[in-house]
Design goal:
The chain has two domains: about 130 residues, endopeptidase domain like (from Nostoc punctiforme) (endopeptidase fold (from Nostoc punctiforme)); about 40 residues. Helix content is about 40%, strand content about 15%. The protein has ten helices and six strands; from the N terminus they run H-H-E-E-E-H-H-E-H-E-H-E-H-H-H-H. It has a six-stranded antiparallel sheet. A hairpin with a 4-residue loop joins strand 1 and strand 2. Helix 1 runs antiparallel to helix 10 and helix 6 crosses helix 7. The two termini are about 15 Å apart. Pfam families: LRAT. Belongs to the H-rev107 family. One of its GO terms (molecular function) is phosphatidylcholine-retinol O-acyltransferase activity.
Length: about 230
């Protein structure tokens, strides 16, 4: 079904203002921080079909373990829209590729090593199972679903992110609990009319600056939800 134009506009604004959610921290200097060397993670406790989580700055990154140190995960990435050369696409996604992918709403469901997937973060295994009691599919079914979806896909923070991908694979339904919780929290905040006014003013200022300033704070991302609720 067609989405409300206000919802589409709000989604676009929100995604631009939340670009920094996905960006990996960079070390001092101009280069990208390389992922750990192979063997950094003990994969002996991972089973094919496991749902892996890596807590990041504000959100959690998700993937499905395929066995043999391979993880399928959805990453915003501009490169699949620009080239069909798998050698280039398969390289670790840089911050620049990721940011442009978010802006272009393009992503790739790709297979990487655990090291490239986690990028130095702590890996949690199947923590979401307790929230989907009775809905967990067989491990092989989850892995096969992930493998079938590998390739270029559309990206949306609200409707098609890495959590939607893994919940479809492991539980049979694409949902994003962290996005839903975030939306509900923001809705509660903007019910205060004074917060709405402040949000609009600060949000407009942020949009003028493309919403990418490191000082971006919660009020600057509330305006998309104000528009979304109004629709």
């Amino acid at each position: 079904s067609m989405k409300n134009p206000l919802q589409q506009a709000a989604s676009l604004l929100l995604e631009k203002l939340l670009l920094l959610v996905h960006v990996r921290p960079l070390p001092a200097g101009s280069g990208e921080d390389p992922p750990p060397a192979p063997g950094y993670y003990d994969t002996s406790c991972f089973k094919r079909g496991d749902l892996l989580e890596v807590p990041r700055t504000l959100f959690i990154h998700f993937g499905i373990y395929l066995g043999e140190n391979r993880v399928a995960h959805l990453m915003p990435d501009i490169l699949p829209a620009l080239t069909a050369d798998r050698r280039h696409i398969q390289r670790v996604v840089t911050n620049k590729r990721l940011i442009l992918g978010v802006m272009a709403r393009t992503a790739s469901i790709r297979v990487d090593s655990v090291e490239d997937f986690a990028y130095g973060g702590r890996v949690l295994v199947n923590h979401m199972d307790r929230l989907f009691a009775g809905q967990v599919l067989g491990s092989e079914e989850a892995a096969r679903r992930a493998e079938k979806l590998v390739g270029t896909t559309a990206y949306s923070l609200l409707w098609n992110n890495c959590e939607h991908f893994v919940t479809y694979c492991r539980y049979g339904a694409p949902v994003s609990l962290q996005t839903d919780k975030f939306c509900e929290t923001v809705k509660m905040i903007i019910r205060d009319q004074r917060s709405v006014l402040a949000s609009v003013l600060v949000g407009l200022a942020s949009i003028v600056c493309l919403g990418l300033a490191p000082s971006t704070t919660l009020p600057s991302i509330l305006i998309p939800f104000f528009l979304w609720m109004a629709g």
